[in-house]
Amino acid sequence: MSQIELVDQNNNKVGHIDASDFLPKAKFDKLLVAEVVKYQLAKKRQGTHKTKTAAEISGGGKKPFKQKGTGRARQGSSRAHHMVGGGVAHGPIPRDHSFSLSKKKRKNALKGLLFEMLTNKVALVVNEFNLDQIKTKKAKILLNNFFSQAVLVTKKENKNVILSMKNLRFYKWLPPEGLNAFDILKYKNLIITQDCLSDIKERLQ
Hints:
Elements: E1 3-7, E2 13-18, H1 19-22, H2 30-44, H3 103-119, E3 123-126, H4 136-144, E4 150-153, H5 159-164, E5 171-174, H6 181-187, E6 190-193, H7 197-203
Parallel strand pairs: 1-3, 3-6, 4-5, 4-6
Antiparallel strand pairs: 1-2
Helix pairs in contact: 2-3
């Protein structure tokens, strides 16, 4: 039975949590996680890339030079695809890059990833994470007790911590409902406060 260490905000062990209770039937699937990350990145793409075809470029209505006698290949328009300043053949057009992926797959990928990270100690559960004032330096010192870079998951009510983390380059705050595979893998480590576990468990059921 896998155990997850419970620590305080100074990274001292204060207990443990049963991983199977928090994440029942979790199974890490590397390919599924990769598919979910690809899904997230595809949704972020704007898809506004665009090039003009020969029909969309102004000019080119007149034949650039006469048909015969110049020794050059005949041309019908200066805006043809092979001409300098001409249109682009088969260029990109605005499109939606997103694709559908079932909620079940997304939940299973995140559940498996959390289980893998927590049992391999690249993710931690903290009994509490609080600051008495908004102070970026204090937040960095506390976070450095755990990892040099990480995602911190706390409740939205934890305003001092959230505002103190805004200017930290190697750390990111997320609420339990915003936890996602892409950010976890980007920052490599994860810190979850104990009061968020029930919200995450409910979300992944």
